[in-house]
């Protein structure tokens, strides 16, 4: 124990001696501390500058694109164009089946035999005054309530002759199924032709064994088939082939569905939306009304998102 105590005291003494010498010893001369930019800091600052410049460039380019982009084309308002085509092949382009009258036009024109059940008030008053002057009895003379012609004869414009055209209407012109000619590209293959028909929602039809057979989804490996006993309820616009090489393509589509058309008539039935689109294109081509047009020729072209119709030519009645 005594030796341990002496060793501990000696160690404590040496430590205190060393600390006192360190406090009183003068500082050792050396290099002062220096703060500088490292290589890491330089590379980081360069990368941040590049990223910031790229962000500013992208923002400026986006703003320039937005400021100079073309305005969006407004879609035309879907307006259904109603037609009353009619007339005869040897009619006159200026006739409308309206009849002239020697009387001047009137807003409330009516036929001469139109009668009125309203009494003439002025004449009734004169009758009452006359009765007061010559009355010999206390009974009143009956008022004259006879019907009178209160209508104004009027007139309409025209000669009454049939207009140039075809159909039951009275305004002249030819109906759409006789006026429109649609041409599909003959050089396109059968698969693309079927896709065009599906895009415009066109169904094929044919009379087979006394029934009307419809084909839809024509681009499928086997088109969808449905039949009808007659076409009485069919209200859609339909086209028949007048030439070109696509008639054989329709026959191939029917054979792919397992139907042999033979020499039977084939039809293309157009959806109402497609018919309205063709009518608007026809009007926008030269802004001529339907009763002035003899033929309108349409073509099918490729367009963004599918296909589109376009008017390539028109002929007119006058």
Question: What is the mean pLDDT?
Answer: 74
How is the main sheet built? 5 strands, antiparallel
In DSSP terms (H or I, runs of 4 or more residues), the helix count works out at 7
What is the chains' assembly state? single chain
What does this structure look like?
The structure is a single chain. It contains seven helices and twelve strands. The protein is elongated, with a radius of gyration of 48 Å. It is 34% helix and 19% strand. Strand 11 (293-303) and strand 12 (306-316) form a beta hairpin. The protein has a domain at 176-316. It starts with a helix and ends with a strand. The strands form four sheets. The protein has a five-stranded antiparallel β-sheet. Strands 5-11-12 form a three-stranded mixed β-sheet. It has a two-stranded antiparallel ribbon with strand order 1-4.
Annotate the secondary structure layout.
Blueprint: H1 2-24, H2 39-68, E1 86-87, E2 109-110, H3 121-134, E3 152-153, E4 167-168, H4 176-179, E5 180-183, H5 190-199, E6 203-208, E7 211-216, E8 224-228, E9 237-239, H6 246-256, E10 266-270, H7 272-286, E11 293-303, E12 306-316
Parallel strand pairs: 2-3, 5-11
Antiparallel strand pairs: 1-4, 6-7, 6-10, 7-8, 9-10, 11-12
Descriptive tags:
single chain; 318 residues; alpha+beta; 7 helices
Summarize this structure briefly.
By secondary structure, the chain is an alpha+beta fold. It contains 7 helices and 12 strands.
């Amino acid at each position: 124990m005594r030796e341990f105590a002496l060793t501990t005291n000696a160690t404590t003494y040496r430590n205190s001696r060393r600390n006192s010498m360190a406090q009183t010893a003068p500082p050792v001369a050396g290099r002062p501390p220096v703060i500088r930019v490292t290589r890491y800091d330089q590379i980081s600052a360069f990368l941040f500058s590049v990223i910031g410049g790229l962000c500013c460039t992208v923002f400026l380019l986006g703003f320039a694109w937005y400021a100079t982009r073309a305005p969006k084309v407004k879609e035309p308002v879907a307006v259904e164009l109603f037609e009353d085509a009619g007339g005869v092949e040897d009619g006159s382009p200026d006739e409308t089946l309206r009849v002239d009258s020697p009387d001047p036009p009137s807003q409330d024109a009516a036929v001469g035999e139109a009668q009125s059940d309203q009494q003439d008030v002025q004449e009734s008053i004169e009758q009452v005054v006359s009765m007061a002057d010559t009355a010999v009895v206390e009974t009143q003379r009956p008022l004259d309530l006879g019907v009178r012609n209160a209508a104004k004869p009027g007139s309409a414009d025209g000669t009454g002759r049939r207009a140039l055209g075809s159909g039951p209407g009275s305004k002249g012109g030819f109906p759409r199924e006789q006026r429109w000619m649609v041409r599909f590209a003959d050089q396109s293959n059968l698969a693309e032709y079927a896709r065009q028909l599906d895009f415009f929602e066109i169904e094929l039809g044919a009379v087979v064994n006394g029934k009307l057979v419809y084909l839809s989804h024509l681009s499928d490996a086997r088109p969808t088939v449905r039949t009808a006993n007659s076409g009485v309820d069919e209200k859609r616009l339909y086209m028949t082939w007048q030439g070109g090489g696509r008639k054989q393509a329709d026959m191939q589509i029917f054979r792919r569905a397992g139907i042999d058309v033979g020499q039977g008539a084939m039809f293309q039935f157009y959806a109402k939306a497609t018919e309205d689109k063709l009518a608007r294109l026809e009007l926008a081509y030269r802004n001529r009304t339907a009763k002035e047009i003899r033929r309108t020729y349409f073509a099918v072209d490729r367009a963004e998102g599918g296909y589109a119709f376009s008017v390539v030519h028109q002929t007119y009645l006058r």
